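Sorry to interrupt, but I need a hand with the structure work. Could you write out one complete protein record for me, on any chain you like? Could you add the entry underneath, on a fresh line?
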Amino acid sequence: MTRPLLEVQGLRKHFPLRGGVLQRTLAWVRAVDGVGFDVAPGETLGIVGESGCGKSTLARLLLRLIEPDAGVVRFDGEDVRAASPTRMKRLRRDMQLVFQDPYASLNPRLTIEDTVAFSLLVHGTPRAEAGERARALLGRVGLDPRLHGRRYAHELSGGQRQRVNIARALVLDPRLLVLDEPVSALDKSVQAQVLNLLQDLKTERALTYVFISHDLNVIEYVSDRVLVMYLGEVVETGTAEALAQSPKHPYTQALFASAPSMDPDHRMDRLPIAGDPPNAIDPPTGCRFRTRCPFAMPRCAELTPPPVAVSAAHEVACYLYEAEPASLA
């Protein structure tokens, strides 16, 4: 079998909440708590969940933009956490991030061409070559370098800015692209254009994607496999088709049930999920979804349910499927 390009095991990040005159640590925000998964070469792994479930923190942990408290991240078999600064600089050529906000992630003082070429200059590429490659890549993402190359970020639309972000991420010829809500700030017509561009680029450049979004329609369209997060933990993983046709975890079922439908026979009579997620500073014991789950049992408050295989390549962390997983596939 092919070795995974990206391996994540037991990844954890808790942020201190400080207060008082001495700024002592009063509590911890459990943003990511024991997340693990693999991504095969050429695969698109979609990560979905409500706002505040830890998706963006996870993206930054994968690229070591923030240091994890515990866990292992391996890229092509190499431990990213153990890499020296020199080695980490080389690894960053292979792992790139496309940020959620296409305007806040661009330097307003740099022209678009200089923005795309900047990473090449940092890695020692001559300025003339860097400019040439930047112009070529701008053309590939649908921006005429003669028209847009000398403009600044505030002179572009949201879709054009996101194309610049994609070009900037691809200019170093990475193997892995982590996309953190890359189309959430765009209107629907522009979303479709950017998603189709990402699909074409993936095929052309043999890229591997970790695609983060809260939009189930987007996740279904781009993903091979889907990982569902709730309050810093993974509650279900499986192929995009399996999760769309037969979601198992009550939270995943509620996510799909809450998706808008144009069919009048499938309109919601009641909310599929009630209330807000619990506070990440003091999450519920055991299963973190139990306070909103209609099937909660006493044992759900005792221990976190382990992942259970309900079918091939489909796992769910829920006690409802523990007894006879084969009959529940």
